[in-house]
Specification:
There is one protein chain. The chain has 202 residues and is of the alpha/beta class. Helix content is 32%, strand content 23%. It is built from six helices and ten strands. α1 crosses α2 and α5 packs parallel to α6. The chain is globular, with a radius of gyration of 17 Å.
């Protein structure tokens, strides 16, 4: 028996902690990076930092080729044409594949939570820049924590049956840095991308 448990994988009676892969701009397409384009048929993959656009597009394409995809774009940065171009490199059925991708653009973190609560495990889920709306300064810190907890509960529920991929950027506010621990806790696979400035020698 194989199942997904918070922060790792439960397999044959044993629990494995989440796999954490740390990458720098110089290892973007190392062998381990290619795994991002081969998302499993269920479970939660978290991508922290700024991954190469190509890698994310490949992952999205593979999910769309497999079936329906719900994509929640919290920062309104998703370009559907770029995805269509990537899909075209993998199949001639571009229109049919793109029709499987449903894009949702929430304006508040409350809408993000609502979408997650209403989602059924019938399609893959991609959460781009997931924490962006939870970083809004006008949102009280306690409320941000409560809403992220609620979101993680839903992500865990969905990840038991479908693949969930979420990307997050580090918090711009010191008091929100703790929100990342909830993301690490729900994921069974975590990719951490260092920014170029993090890899420069002093």
């Amino acid at each position: 028996m194989r199942g997904i448990r918070s922060g790792g994988i439960y397999h044959n009676g044993r629990f494995s902690p989440p796999q954490v892969i740390e990458l720098t701009p110089h290892s973007l397409y190392a062998d381990e990076m290619n795994h991002l384009a081969h998302v499993q048929n269920r479970g939660v993959t978290a991508v922290i930092g700024t991954p190469p656009e190509k890698a994310l597009l490949e992952a999205m394409t593979q999910l769309a080729l497999m079936g329906n995809v719900s994509l929640i774009d919290s920062a309104e940065q998703f370009d559907k044409q770029l995805l269509a171009d990537e899909v075209r490199q993998n199949t001639s059925l571009v229109d049919e594949t793109m029709a499987r991708v449903r894009v949702i653009r929430p304006f508040t973190c409350h809408q993000v939570v609502q979408h997650l609560e209403e989602s059924q495990p019938t399609s893959a889920l991609i959460l781009l820049n997931f924490l962006t709306l939870f970083y809004v300064e006008t949102l009280p810190d306690s409320e941000a924590v409560r809403l992220v907890r609620s979101s993680v509960t839903q992500i865990r529920r969905l990840g038991r049956q479908v693949p969930v991929v979420l990307t997050v950027k580090p918090a711009p506010l010191p008091q929100r840095t703790g929100l990342l621990k909830f993301i690490r806790g729900v994921a069974h696979q975590v990719y951490v991308f260092e920014s170029p400035s993090d890899t420069k020698s002093p």
